[in-house]
Amino acid sequence: MNLQDKVVVVTGASSGIGIEIARALGGERMSLVLAARRAEKLEDVAEELAELGVPIEVIATDVTREAECEALVATTLATYGRLDVLVNNAGYGPPAPLLELDEALWDVTIDTCLKGVYLMTRAVMPTMLAQGGGAVVNISSVAGKEGFARRTAYCAAKWGLHGFTAALRAELGEQNIRAHLICPGAVATPWWEKANDEQPDEVMEKMIQPAEVAEAVRWVLTQPERLQIDEVVVRTYRSPWD
User: Fold this and answer.
1) Which residues contact 163 (CB under 8 A, 6 or more apart)?
2) Residues 9-64: pLDDT tens digits?
3) pLDDT band at residue 97 under the 50/70/90 scheme
4) Partners of 181 in the beta sheet?
């Protein structure tokens, strides 16, 4: 796909991996629609990325709410008149032993990591199909391929995301809908550091960096359209999750 002048929606764009995905795709001259729950953080990100010189729209959105997902798409179309790529990056999943994992934490993890992907993908699909195609990039995790202690809800959500993406590809691939999974190991984000007891700098520096995940997203989108890149796994030689 030639990304120049195309339009991309990035969820979870207020920090970490989301900011770097926006930066990488803005560098390809894409028009950016940045979504997250915190409007003030999105405004800060838009200001930070203004040097890219591409159009940027910020829309406060809770991806677990159908009406907000539909409104995000409607605003994107009203602003740009098209929508070519959706990057489902919004995620949530603090660690908790199974016996301490209450129903509320289970629900918010599944809703953010899985239901949100379903709602956003369903919301963009009529537009992509009418345009003759598009791409959905789902940011998963190696936790969608392997099990990790104290991550039962997160693993369940990410394994479900793998099934959702494969089914989407099977259902709409022949209509020029490309569906990709990016599966990082542990990434040095503020969320990871907070969830893992303030890791020291030397540990964070050896982990996968958010910009490296963003490069994987940029790479799958810029491959020839005749290729279907199903899944890209991004690991360090010795990931903290290994």
Assistant:
1) none
2) 999 999 999 999 999 999 999 999 999 999 999 999 999 999 999 999 999 999 99
3) very high
4) 138, 231
Please indicate whether residue 92 is annotated as part of the active site.
no
The amino acid occupying position 110 is I
Distance of CA 147 to the CA centre of its chain: 21
Answer for the pair 90, 34: CB distance below 8 angstroms, yes or no.
no
Residue 224 CB-density burial (10 A; 0-12 exposed, 13-18 middle, 19+ buried): exposed
- List, in order, residues 6 or more apart from 171 with CB less than 8 Å away: none
Phi, psi of 191 (to 5 degrees): -60, -45
Q: What is the pLDDT of residues 192-239, one digit of tens each?
A: 555 555 555 666 677 899 999 999 999 999 999 888 899 999 988 565
Residue 31 corresponds to which tokens in the numbers above?
Answer: 């028009």
Query: Among residues 78, 163, 165, 86, which one has the least CA distance to residue 123?
Result: 86
| Torsions phi, psi for 6 (to 5 deg) | -80, 170
93 near 100, Cβ under 8 Å? no
Q: Residue 5, Cβ neighbours under 10 Å: how many?
A: 14
Choosing from 80, 118, 154, 237, the catalytic residue is: 154
Task: Residue 117: name the closest of 191, 64, 50, 182 by CA.
Answer: 64
Per DSSP, helices labelled H in the chain are 16-26, 39-49, 66-80, 103-110, 116-131, 152-172, 190-195, 201-206, 210-221
133-145 residues labelled b (16+ CB within 10 A) or e (exposed): ebbbbbbbbbbbe
